Amino acid sequence: MSAPLTVVLPDAKAVKDMLTGLTGKPVGVTPGAPVTPTPRSPVSVAVYVDPQLSINALCVMDLGASAYTGAALALLPPGGAQDAVEEDGELTGMLTEALHEVVNVLSALFNVPGAPHSKLYKLYAPGEDLPGDIAGSLADFNRLDLAIDVPGYGKGALSLVIPSLGA
Questions:
Q1: Per-residue model confidence (pLDDT) at position 1
Q2: 165 pLDDT exceeds 70?
Q3: Residue 51: exposed, middle, or buried by beta-carbon count in 10 A (0-12, 13-18, 19+)?
């Protein structure tokens, strides 16, 4: 009998390489603090599922990481993304759409040999209500917490979490 397939966390270099390739900018990636939503600090949450539609990974980004990676991918001017973070406290529709593409591509970080295929199931934009099971999983311990710096745009934080849902 073989061991069950499990999703594994990527390392920081894989995240750096993915974000750098995606944005076309040398994104700085260093160890960071866990990204945790609060009423004053909204987060985006990407939910990834396996072929049976079981949740197998989460990507949690603070407003800065959400806005700056999306804007860099879509080649949007930095000022609009910085206004979204510093003044509006929410993403525009265009930034949300660009962020959707960012987190969709990030699913490749979980698709390594021996792991079940992961695909993006849903993106909860900053400020959207999260289902209770997903909100509860944001603090799970199997995680990678990173600080990122998108040159020309700004800094943010990103956490990748392997939830213990149903475990």
A1: 45
A2: no
A3: exposed
